[in-house]
């Protein structure tokens, strides 16, 4: 959602079957909360298809990539690497430093007394699955904890992105959507891109609460 820098989310590790829903939701959360691109491990093709489908219907821009070289992606990333981990520094204490490092600092945060904005840099936000290698902790410019309590990659990512963008991502516009949800106190109204009603009181026509179409995702509750 930024002109001069790219915010990329890397899902590190994926266990087919067991992690399908979580990996899909990492992608949906990255898209909805302002990242430009998500990278999934190449064994997460089902999740990639689901997130691409949501982007086709609800808009973008947002890119989904499948890669098998996660270690190399992190090692060679030319920009700032944030690794989300319960062991990291408290997000509320480092968010300003992260914004400054990638050139997202608002007036008064950056540049000390001059208030000058810092140079835009790309940002890689890494979330793990089962286990991540120690090398990731060492390569990361920031190891960041969203609380130092164990929870989930989806929750950690959501809070981190919202802190990074200071809430601005909530107001973003979506390009090339073929449908849009009309926010309302009660009801589920979805209209076509041109504003024509699709299904008043319905669910957008795909039968699912999150737009991922019933049956798209294997159920990995365990
Ligand atoms: C099931 S957890 C694995 C827990 C792992 N032992 C760790 O280092 O956080 C999966 C992922 O959720 C994210 N996560 C869990 N708790 C977090 C927290 N408190 N702050 C930030 N990220 C968290 C991390 O990216 C982690 O790799």
Helix fraction?
Answer: 25-40%
Biggest β-sheet description: 6 strands, parallel
CATH architecture: 3-Layer(aba) Sandwich
| Spatial extent as radius of gyration | 18 Å
Bound heterogens, unique: S-adenosylmethionine
Count of helices?
6
What percent of residues are in strands? 15-25%
Shape: globular
CATH superfamily: SPOUT methyltransferase, trefoil knot domain
Overall pLDDT metric: 88
Give the tally of β-strands: 8
Q: Strands across the major sheet, in which order? A: 3-2-1-5-4-6
The CATH class label is Alpha Beta
How is the CATH topology named?
Alpha/beta knot
Describe the structure.
With 222 residues, the protein is an alpha/beta fold. It has a single domain, classed as Alpha/beta knot, CATH 3.40.1280.10. The protein has 6 helices and 8 strands, in the order βαβαβαβαβαβαββ. A 6-stranded parallel sheet has the order 3-2-1-5-4-6. It has a two-stranded antiparallel sheet with strand order 7-8. A hairpin with a 6-residue loop joins strand 7 and strand 8. Helix 1 (20-32) runs parallel beside helix 2 (45-58), helix 1 runs parallel beside helix 6 and helix 4 crosses helix 6. The model is unreliable at 214-222 (pLDDT under 50). The structure holds S-adenosylmethionine (SAM). S-adenosylmethionine (SAM) is lined by residues 84-87, 127-129, 132, 145-147, 149-153, 156. It catalyses: cytidine(56) in tRNA + S-adenosyl-L-methionine = 2'-O-methylcytidine(56) in tRNA + S-adenosyl-L-homocysteine + H(+). This is tRNA (cytidine(56)-2'-O)-methyltransferase. Specifically catalyzes the AdoMet-dependent 2'-O-ribose methylation of cytidine at position 56 in tRNAs. Its EC number is 2.1.1.206.
